[in-house]
Design a protein that fits this description.
Chain lengths: ~350, ~350
Amino acid sequence: MNEEPDFNNKPTERELISLPREMVLAGDEVHVAGEDEYIVGTSLARDAWRRLLKNRLAVFGLVVVLLITVVSLLGPPIVKAATGFTYDYIPPDVTLIKSIPPFRSADGKFSWTHPMGTDNSGRDLLARVLLGGRISLMVGVISTLVSLLIGVGYGAIAGFIGGRVDSWMMRLVDVLYSLPYIILVIVLLAMFRSSTPLGQLVLLFVALGSVSWLTMARIVRGQVLSLKNQEFVLAARATGVSTTRIILRHVVPNTLGPVIVYATLTIPQVMLSEAFLSFLGFGVQPPLASWGSLAAEGIQNIAIFPWQLIFPGLTMALTLFSLNFLGDGLRDALDPQMRT
Amino acid sequence: MTTANSALLTVKDLCTYFKTEDGLVKAVDGVSFELRRGETLGIVGESGSGKSVTNLSIIRLIPDPPGRIVSGEIIFAGVDLLQLPEAEVRKIRGRRISMIFQDPMTSLNPFMKISKQLMEMTRLHLGYSKSQAYEHAIRMLETVGIPDARSRVEDYPHEFSGGMRQRVMIAMALSCQPELLIADEPTTALDVTIQAQILELIKKLKHETGTSVILITHDLGVVAGMTDYVVVMYAGKIFEQAPTREIFARPGNPYTKGLLKSVPDPSAEQGQLYQIPGLPPDVAHLGSGCPFAPRCDRVAEICRREFPPFVQLNPEHHSLCHFAADVFEESRAESSVTL
């Protein structure tokens, strides 16, 4: 009656039919396997990647973000090699009119020396915008990592333990949520004011990171709450895995989709906050520069030297747009609602 | 009864209660049974009868709060699991007692490769190195009949069908050669042909490894083909326990009789399928009488008033009923007529 099933190296038709639906994208032709064909499954990551590539805006965002990252990483040494200017080089012979327009030399003729012009002190604006890119991206990424670390840890613990602990931990988040965070950051920065520009920068990472983890914690907690009741967590418990290991290896990786999405959307948000703070004078201090601090300097002379505002402003806007497009695209690609 | 040294698992008077807003739910109330090495015990009952809670209690996985094991003893290989500290219990879980769950679709971690999930067990409990564990994982997949195991071990769970996933679960459960395997409705979520394959597989592996098995199910057909002993549960209590052959031939409890009558019989062309009238009781609000009384076809005045005794019908057959002896005699008479 019960014959051992026929196990060749090919999956049976039943198994092919039961391939999960997410592997068949809308618009894809459903391919029916022939005799000798073997369907190779796609991994979840590859699947999401394919969906991302279908989204033009997201691809545009991805390309621009990568481009700007590469340019701001490699740019400063190249500019130095090509024109001899660094971000903090102040020419000794500054005349009364310090700022030189784009593509002009000091005597007003056409020149490649300063493609973006110079700032008030005669520093090359291109070099400063590139440096500003480095620092702005760094602030965005590092602060997001800080918020990721705190948010995921906090949310996972609250969600997994549940009960009263969860209630208290989340009430704390609610309280922090209700505080105007930018004021919190200003207070933090003012309290621990550092004397060196670099110290100020580190402080900025910490300050921005420590206020932007709240939403992340909420998202992760929500995910964990629904995950911890899934059978594979019970199965892991039943195999003797410790609670810490279950959280780290079984629960947290399963929250990655929403976490990645939210993280990519946090980066532009943090960069904007940084620009705002620098604009107010609390952020990056000269001779270092970020897009925000450059814009702040530029706005003082907007009527006479508009390029001082336009170039950093445009780069920042482009980057923020791209990051947001990328984040939206990632959300569409990774959204768990789309499968099941 | 049997001598204590051959018993692998003895559950004595286990009580697991849940605190709910509706009151105290006695999910498992005074359950006792024994499982000998190499044998298979079937636990049968309707949904909510306490089958799963009994078994989660055995490996101490009752979510606390709201659940709590209030009293009882669970003696596994001579040690009372309820007295052990959590860390010690964790060493037993997966290593000496492992579990298979109902729904293979959700009991594997969707974000981990099969290899990782299989390796976790042996690395944790047997201290295998990565390569040892990897080879062992492949061997286990071959054992449970996954074709082309070496390449499939690198797949993710969603690339497997339901039956295949349940095979993976079995491979995982057996990878440390446990002494006791608890299968909690292992075939409920599968279709009938796959169901038969999985049951055959469990049976085969049980013979090869000598593992004892507790099989939780609500399918009497599965019980008949797989088990040596049967425990019938209702409303958190054991209603009848006996060797499998005996319980099918001579049930000593009206509830068991009702269950057996509800099994469709293809040979008899009956127009309508028998069903036990009514619904299982709300365990939070049980009266003082027999919990089955409102649905029982031979209910008497005493059933509504007094809780029934646990009657011993013969050395291995017990039944919870005021009229156990009568029911037992009737079934004996019926079976001698029909046989």
